[in-house]
Amino acid sequence: MKHRMLEGKATVFSVLVVVLMSIGGIAEIVPVSAVKANIPEIASVKPYSPLELEGRDIYIREGCYNCHSQMIRPFRAETLRYGEYSRAGEFVYDHPFQWGSKRTGPDLAREGVTRPDPAWHWKHFDDPRQMSEGSIMPRYGWLLRDKLDTSLTQKKMEAMKTLGVPYSAEDIAAGPAKLQEQAGAIQASLKEKGIEAGADVEAVALIAYLKRLGTDFMSDKNNLTVPQ
Amino acid sequence: MVVALTAYGMATLEGPMLSIKSVNSLSHYTDWTVAHVHGGALGWVGFISAAFIYWIVPRLWNTEWAKPGWLSLHFWIGTVGIIFYIVPMWAGGITQGLMWRALNDLGGLKYAEFLETVRVLQPFYLIRVVGGLMYLAGFILLLVNLLLTVTGPKTGRATQEAA
Predict the structure, then answer these.
(1) Which of A36, A107, A138, A215 is most buried when burial is the number of CB atoms within 10 A of its CB?
(2) Which of B100, B104, B106, B129 to mutate to test the interface with A (most CBs of A within 10 A)?
(3) Distance (Å, whole) CA A137 – CA A128
(4) Residues of chain A with confidence (pLDDT) below 70
(5) What is the pTM assigned to this prediction?
């Protein structure tokens, strides 16, 4: 009878359900976000450069995260395959994080460490079968041709700043120049391998992003608990 | 209804099982998760929605389905489609998980090339496409049947069972 009274009143019942669920939610979420020590800071982890930030947006636009994860679990089989396992502090400047949940292709959390060569990525975007026989990844030829839209780079940096990424006013002011500089370096590196690429195409930004992945943590040997 | 409830039961049993740490260590990142969510989406949500539409449309328009035979046809290609979709994803997902973690006698990776697992999975992906197309075809039948029924002559309902 009591049940009937409760369940018969849709609004009251809905509110009570929300209250009940919130208690569980609060108990789980609040301690995680309130206790700072949950995410130990890693000094060598730095914000993305302007070009890498643009590259990350290409990564998201093309849906790379649907098939590639960026989170190596602390299991022997995973660290053997992909490298040092991922730490929470490595993702503090990722808004949003790109952990993914499915590996139709391999994990990319240490891609910058294991595959730093821009030429490999360039050819792989053009036709993955060139570099990996039997790969089922689609071709991304337009990345090699389409010009990168840099009109919003500074705005994107400001948006990241509101989310807690420590870009200074000088960083943002120097953003476009820094972007050109880094793109030029990747262009030069591609040229060394005989690839004539424009510095202003989308692939260059995406390569910059992929080259960065996982490198910050690995750059400081003190971060490693197990000697490599 | 029965298939929908079975799918609901399986998906809700499978969910907590996949949340167990040791099971998840194998299943995470694999197609097992894909099998699981499609059991819920195609089996439970899809089938219960179809069952409801098949029940209510004759009552709303006071008529019979224009193609009554299509109802059981939809049911069967849908059911077989789900099986063709989920079973290869289960098998593929577990295969994938086991291959990723397999070590050789020296303690190194047995399948060091990620591509080795991709090659093994390709037949599973093909069967899944067939299953998905069958399931989609079932819902196209529903849609066409619905249009024919709603736009066609209203015949009134043949049998009025007690509510």
Answers:
(1) A107
(2) B100
(3) 6
(4) 1, 225-228
(5) 0.84
